[in-house]
## 1
Amino acid sequence: MIQFMACSYQDFGVRFLNEPVRSFQKVCTVKRRRRIDRSMIGEPTNFVHTAHVGSGDLFSGMNSAPAYHLILEGILILWIIRLLFSKTYKLQERSDLTLKEKEELIEEWQPEPLVPPVPKDHPALNYNIVSGPPTHIITVNGKECINFASFNFLGLLNNEKVKSAAQASLKKYGVGTCGPRGFYGTFDVHLELEERLAKFMRTEEAIIYSYGFATIASAIPAYSKRGDIVFVDEAACFAIQKGLQASRSNIKLFKHNDMADLERLLKEQETEDQKIKLKYKYKVRIFLEESLSFGVLGEHGRGITEHFGINIDDIDLISANMENSLASIGGFCCGRSFIIDHQRLSGQGYCFSASLPPLLAAAAIEALNIMEDNPDIFQTLRAKCERIHKALQGISGLKVVGESFSPALHLQLEESCGSRENDVKLLKRVVDYCMNSGIALTQARYLEKEEKCLPPPSIRVVITVEQTEQELDKAASLLKEAAQSVLN
């Protein structure tokens, strides 16, 4: 005899071998203990049912059950039987090692090195020591050299006005701010610098960061998120690469300065999403990184937009560091107000880093004053860039990479020696040859395992307004001499 409890007559139903109530009613005889009125149908009622199930009814119910259900129940029953009748076992106890066995194991053990083996000629183990600030004349390993290695395009690093402004700010504010901009790290000098930068770049607003590398690396993930598509020049700098990595966006690389290749990618994307057009046509945003062009290109040093006569309103965001031209540290972004305001809440380097030390902000403001008061400085720099670019042409074994108006040029081998390591060693001999003769150069360094598109090894040549024509000619002549001596 089987008893079932139910909550209501309407919900009453008993599944026997997963069959509906009507099947149960066919195989079971139900005898109610009390009568149920029709008015009680659907009302909550507690009652007990008694069912008499015969063996024939059980077999007919099993025959009408689905095959997969019977197989599953059979497997479960067999598994339960196996668990009930299987023998228990004990874990084998470990025997203690003898003293002799322990000593043998200790002698056989060879520890892994704490750090991987490093060759003796690794650059980190053979560094040059610079004494004093990296100005026009630099002291390397006790020897005075003309500096063609440091980014100091406008020669403001040792400017007395800039140093005086930094010293006055140091006395007034102290060394640092000890807090991010969003808390207690905003000083009046920060707001003044942002206002001056926006005015200089002729944009609505500007925002400054305390570290140049973090500027574009924070600006990109502030706007681009997972699921967005970003079209990037394959020669983009490492800071841009880190920003793209942090954004987790879909990255599409186009060939360096190849607009036809960019349009090819845009047309491919257009087939997938008709909303994308070239800028206004394809509905994309343009972010411009100008760390090497701000304070260099244009009649007043405003960068690429001024140099090529582009309306700055057509550019959504401009980013640059203040370390190459403003003789300071940090970086800035400028553009429309709503774009800059978004960074104040979403720029990681702005929200979570201590703000720029006031003395560095004061130095940058004074550098801007000098740039505005002396616009001829940009024409002077450009003339010197064109002079050395022309002088470096035709060096046997080396080729010049860079525009004639660029203050940063690269000298690459015309033909590789067969491996990157050998190319680096060969170029280092050229650099050492020049340094022994009083010209300080440097090789371009990269994080080779992390670079998206690793450039070939090269010697970097940096031009500043402080270098005289005679010094430029001397550097070009010495490079030709070094190439002939080392490469040929």
## 2
Amino acid sequence: FYNNHRTHLALNKDSPIPSPILKPPQDGKGKLVSTPVLGGLYHTYSYDNVA
């Protein structure tokens, strides 16, 4: 079992499933949102559209 979000020494500090590079929306109207994982031990980030 691999945690898909963290790095692994056996994989040369890479994750088993690469994550896409997070880029802000081109119009500059996106809001960066943090989502807790494992009770807040890790966080994932995404942009929400702001109207």
